[in-house]
Amino acid sequence: MTIEQQIEYLRKGCAEVISEEELGAKLKDCTKDGRPLRVKAGFDPTASDLHLGHTVLIRKMKHFQDLGHTAIFLIGDVTGLIGDPSGRNSTRPRMTREQILENAETYKQQVFKVLDRDKTEIRFNSEWLLELGTLGMIKLCSSATVAQLLEREDFSKRYKQGKPISLHEFLYPLTQAQDSVALRADVELGGTDQKFNLLLGRELQADHGQARQVVATMPILEGLDGVQKMSKSLDNYIGINEPAEIMYRKVMQVSDDLMFRYYELLTDLSIKEIDQLKRDVAKGAKHPMEVKHALADRIVKDFHSERAALRGGDAFRRVVQNKEVPDDMPEMDIPQEMRGHDVLRIDKLLRAIGLANSGAEANRKLRENAVSVNGVKHREMSYAVPDGVLELVVKFGKKWARVRL
Fold first, then answer.
1. What percent of the chain has pLDDT over 70?
2. Banded pLDDT at 123 (limits 50, 70, 90)
3. Which of 51, 109, 184, 193 is the most exposed place for a label (fewest CB within 10 A)?
4. DSSP string covering 116-182, please?
5. Confidence class of residue 90 from pLDDT cuts 50, 70 and 90?
6. Which CATH code is given to the segment(s) 331-404?
7. Which CATH code fits 3-218?
8. What is the DSSP letter of 29?
C-alpha cells in the first residue's frame, strides 16, 4: 500500500487525526528505518468485561497491526484509581486496587479476541507512575496550569455550575500524558472525549525532547438505547464475552439508523460499502431487518465463530421472530439454591419462577411438549445448561419468563 492508501485505511471511522501530515511522515520514516510505529490506547479496568464500545479503539489498533505496527494495550491500573472525569458531572466513586487488578486480568484475556498477540504489548501504567515519587509528581504537576486544565469541557461545566472538582481529578490528564512519554508513543488513540488528554500528551513529549505523537480520536459508540454512551453501568452494552445467542439478540435491538454507525465502527466494511447498504435500504432493495441480521452475523463471528453466529441467528429467528417473544416478559434471577448448577430440574425451575403452580402441572406441560427453553422444545425433566449461557428464555404454555443464571 502507498502512504496515501495506508492513511485512508487508518482514517476510516476516525473523528479526527492530528495530523494526517504528521501521520504520513511517521509512516514514511518507519518504512525507511524498518521500525514499526508504537500505537497506544489506554483502558481503565473499572468493570470486569470489555464491551463493543471498547472495541472501537481496539479495532483501530488492529488496523495499525495489519500494516505491521505494534499495538500497546495500556491497562490503567493507576489512572483507574484516579477515575476518568471525561463526560462526568461529578467525581467518580473510588475503586480499590484489588478490584482494578482483578478486572485487569479479564481484560488481558479478552483483548486478543481482536488484537494479534504477536504484535501487542500489554503494559500497566503503574510501571512508571508509581516510580515517580513525590518529587516526580510535583514536577509532573508543573507541566500544566489550573487554567489549562479548566479548559476541559467537563471540568469547565462543573466549575461554572459550582459542582465539586476533587484535586486528584486534575491528575488524570497529566498521568495519561505521562504514559505517552514513558511508552514513547508514536500514535495515541482515544475517544473524542479524551482529546484534551491526548493533546497534553503531545506537549509533554515535546517537553521531554520526544517527537510529538499523532492523535487519532474515535467517536463514542452509543449503547442499545441509542442515546447514552455504551456502558455496563447503564445496562445498554453488548459484552464481547457474552454468549453468541445473547450477543446476536442484543445487536438486533439496535435501531435501523444506529446500525449503520455500528457497521462503520465495529466492522471492516469500507465506507463505500456501507453507503451502498444505506442506498439499498433507502430504495427498498434490501430490508433493514436483512441488513441488521448481516451486522449481527459479522459481530458474532468476530468474537465467537461462524458456527456460533449461525446458532445465534437461528435462535433469534425461532425465539423472537417466529415465536413473537413478548417484550414485557418478566425478568428474574435464578433462585439462589439453583445457581451455579450445570444441570437444572425443569419442573423445579418452572415452579420457582412462578410459571407452574405445582410440580404436577409442570410435569404435565413437559409431557404435552408445551415447554421450550431458548426456543427449543423441551420434554425432559433435566436441562443441561450449555457452556457460556447466561440466561434462559422459558416458555410455559402461553407464559414467558427470562431467567438470568
1. 95
2. very high
3. 109
4. -GGGEEEEETHHHHTTSHHHHHHHHHTTS-HHHHTTSHHHHHHHHTT----GGGGHHHHHHHHHHHH
5. low
6. 3.10.290.10
7. 3.40.50.620
8. H
